[in-house]
Amino acid sequence: MVPIETRKLGRSDALLTKLGLGGAPLGDLFTCISDEQALQIQQVAWDSGVRYYDTAPFYGYGKSEHRIGQFLRQQPRSEFHISTKVGRVFQATRNLDTFDKGTWAGGLPFEFIYDYSYDGIMRSYEDSLQRLGLNSVDLLLIHDLDFWFNKTEARVNAWLAQLFTSGWRALDELRASGQIKGVGAGINELGMIPRFLDMVDLDFFTVALPYTLLDQDILDDEFPRCQENGVGIVIGAVFASGILATGPVEGAYYKYEPATAEILQKTKQIEAICQRHRTPLAAAAMQFPLAHPIVAAIIPGALEPEHVQSNVEHLEHDIPADLWVELKAEGLLREDAPTP
Q1: Residues 6+ apart with CB under 8 A from 130
Q2: How many domains does the chain have?
Q3: Residue 296 CB burial class (10 angstroms; 0-12, 13-18, ≥19)
């Protein structure tokens, strides 16, 4: 095993392997996987040198945390970093006939309410420790406080107000006491990073969609502001939720929906350039965001152990500099985008 490079995450004390493992698929996102398969995925990641694992109560309504905890409890605690999230509180569903699993093909029979209050965040944190079977996590993120899930300005403002006037005190206390190493926020879309930075003292963001081979508008204002403030970034969806791993095939997903004809065409053009330079599209997708100086890690998920192994191989693939030059010359990548 060749050790994976570690990088400091923003203003936190966390040193993360630049390749982590995203835990959403372990919660049965779109597809059910067995407990045995979930353990195999994590074992291959561990054997490959991955030492950063990301999960959330929302992933499979607790299932991802249970599975990741089952594996990490068997590893030396000093050898890995784990992040989970707050903002939802779960309780057992009372009616299995009407229970809505959402996007989770399997998951557990628990339902949630949003809660960004002091008590809600502390309960979420303690519940996560119970599900994980660990006495600590390294990083906590404010989860899904955005328009992607909350739809309207009124709702987003209400949760931001609850966080600012109540919940932030919990996160600040946990960080100040050393129970966690850093506080972040999960971002699905443009526009929320400045609102968080104006309101609370974050160490990092996990950016799920706005920075990939297909999207770089976040370079206009939001990444520069993070860089000015020493705020780090973890990239949570290097494959844009699918298409940059599968390629522009029929039924490919982009931003968790079937890709449009425009996105399919752009991906096809990018893939053609990658092929000319003998580089897998997935390798370019993984290595591109890591070239930005504030990006500490990427956390692709996996449905099979082989996916983890291929991710490690793509991370190590030698990509010619001319590939990036051609992508920019063809207008497929921003001129100001840092490249490996």
Answers
A1: none
A2: 1
A3: buried
Using CA atoms, how far apart are residues 144 and 128, in angstroms rounded to an integer? 17
CA pair distance 104, 100, nearest whole angstrom = 9
Between strands 139-142 and 81-86, the pairing is parallel
Longest dimension (CA), the chain: 58
pLDDT one-digit tens code per residue, 1-52: 678 999 999 999 999 999 999 999 999 998 999 999 999 999 999 999 999 9
**255 assigned to some structural domain:** yes
Using DSSP, state whether 209 is helix, strand or coil. Answer: coil
Is 0.85 topped by the overall pTM?
yes
Domain range enclosing 186: 6-329
Question: Tokens 């990509």 identify what position?
Answer: 319
CATH code of the domain in which 283 resides: 3.20.20.100
Q: How many CB atoms lie under 10 A from the CB of residue 147?
A: 14
339: in domain: no
61 classed as catalytic: no
Contacts of 175 (CB under 8 A, 6+ apart): 181, 182, 183, 203
Residue 336 within a domain:
no
Q: Is 85 one of the annotated active-site residues of the chain? A: yes
Query: pLDDT digits over 265-310, tens only?
Result: 999 999 999 999 999 999 999 999 999 999 999 999 999 999 999 9
* Catalytic one of 28, 54, 127, 144: 54
Q: Among the options 52, 53, 59, 125, which is catalytic?
A: 59
**Residue 278 backbone class (left: φ over 0; alpha: ψ -120 to 50; beta: rest):** left
Whether residue 335 is contained in a domain is answered as no
Q: Residue 219 gets which letter from DSSP? A: G
> Is 138 assigned a catalytic role?
no
Residue 140 has pLDDT above 90, yes or no: yes
How high is the pLDDT of residue 102? 93
Is residue 61 within 8 A of residue 104, CB to CB? The reply is: yes
